[in-house]
Specification:
The protein is built from 17 helices and 13 strands. It has 422 residues and is an alpha/beta fold. It has a 5-stranded mixed sheet. β4 and β5 form a beta hairpin. The radius of gyration is 21 Å and the shape is globular.
Length: 422
């Protein structure tokens, strides 16, 4: 078993969720910002820092060392924040609210980008992103966008898979309707059904596939009160009611679902790529495969993006040097190293064609496809409140305590209230 696969468990679980923490604070302040141009990184000098979560594999420091070696006029250093995402955000926000120049490059969970941009904490990187746009998987670029501007460079990404038992079904169904039908004839389906961000993601995967949305493109109009939302929620609730999805699933996060699948308690599982490595070490190692998400409601399969973006702090005293570092960290060479040594899925498409990457990550091609079909979560400064409105009401409806119609109506009202607070 490769070092890459073993490392996946630690590196991808929270990365995929991309909202392991967070609270209800929002900074306010609009999106008026200074803009950085690509050529401003040329000839940069001086000190620059990168603030991101704990460097559990050493790959972040290796990236810093490579940057310093290639840029003798710049002296970059790594500032490690706590591993839990909510604590990372808390420490970054404390610095940003104090207008501290300590963090030049910000490693941001994808759902923080809109909040930071709206608060006036980031440089506008639209010209920089546009200069590199063809290099990235398009969906990852979308995760950096807020109000028609790009606020970060996509650094790493993630998207979910459908896991299935090959000793029970011959191939992965091509629709979620068929997944549920097949699961009902075999040992069922499990996913992240607990009352938290993971349930929001599972619901959005069906909603997006059916053509539904949470907010309008400009983020100002709530659009979740739709036939697609009701039908998706009724579909999920029916799966629990008829026993296709076990009632215990209402308590499952990523790890509970993984363990149940490995213990032979389900034919199908929705989970992040990290579970692949651990399942390869389990009793079902020879009896499962993965597939990208099937379609639902007549639409194509749709995932939800996880990952981190690299923003430039509006309070940086060396934005030119910060830009040079951020651009360096998304070059194909560094992205390949991060994917092989740190299990961080690349945002640069060509990386997935590298033979060493494919050897280290046997599912590299499937992962690229999964990221390509994925969509960002609603880009909003009040995303934590939006997600809470979704997962609380989905949990109530899926477990039969309220109707799908009531749940969607509640979501709509609560999201509307959240949007109006900003």
């Amino acid at each position: 078993m490769s070092r890459y696969l073993i490392a996946l468990a630690a590196a991808l679980a929270c990365l995929g969720l991309a909202a392991c923490g967070g609270d209800d604070d929002d900074g306010g302040g609009g999106v008026e910002a200074e803009t950085l141009e690509p050529d401003q990184a040329e000839g940069a000098s001086g000190e620059v820092s990168w603030c991101i979560g704990a460097d559990t594999t050493g790959a972040f420091q290796a990236g810093i060392d490579s940057f310093n070696e290639a840029n003798p006029d710049l002296d970059a250093r790594l500032i490690e924040l706590p591993e839990p995402a909510d604590q990372q955000r808390e420490q970054q926000v404390q610095r940003l609210e104090a207008e501290s120049p300590e963090c030049d490059v910000l490693g941001m969970d994808v759902i923080w980008t809109a909040e930071y941009a709206a608060a006036g904490w980031l440089y506008d990187l639209t010209p920089v992103v546009e200069a590199h746009e063809d290099e990235f998987i398009p969906s990852t670029v979308e995760s950096t966008e807020y109000e028609d501007q790009f606020w970060a460079l996509p650094f790493n990404t993630n998207a979910g898979f459908l896991y299935y038992r090959t000793d029970q079904v011959d191939e992965a169904p091509t629709t979620w309707e068929d997944v549920y039908a097949s699961a009902g004839e075999e040992d069922g389906l499990i996913y992240q059904g607990a009352e938290y961000e993971g349930l929001t993601v599972n619901f959005l995967e069906l909603l997006y596939s059916a053509g539904g949305s949470v907010l309008s493109e400009d983020g100002e109009t709530v659009e979740i009160d739709s036939d697609q939302a009701r039908e998706a929620l009724e579909f999920m609730a029916q799966g629990v009611e008829d026993g296709t999805v076990p009632k215990a699933n209402s308590t499952y996060e990523e790890e509970e679902a993984r363990r149940a699948f490995e213990n032979g308690q389900a034919t199908f599982m929705r989970n992040w790529p990290y579970a692949y490595a651990l399942a390869q070490e389990s009793d079902i190692a020879e009896d499962f495969e993965i597939a990208t998400f099937p379609g639902y409601g007549g639409g194509e399969g749709a995932g939800v993006l996880g990952g981190y973006n690299l923003g430039i702090s509006a309070f940086s005293e060396n934005p030119e040097g910060a830009l040079a570092l951020a651009e360096f960290l998304v070059t194909p060479e560094i992205q390949e190293t991060m994917m092989i040594d740190a299990s961080l899925p690349a945002t640069v498409s060509e990386v997935y064609d590298d033979q060493q990457v494919q050897k280290a990550a046997p599912f590299a091609e499937e992962l690229r496809t999964a990221v390509e079909q994925a969509q960002p979560r609603p880009p909003s400064p009040v995303y934590p409140q939006i997600s809470e409105a979704i997962y609380e009401n989905v949990h109530e409806a899926v477990n039969g305590r309220i109707s799908a119609d009531e749940a969607v109506s509640n979501m709509n009202d609560q999201i509307q209230e959240a949007v109006e607070t900003f």
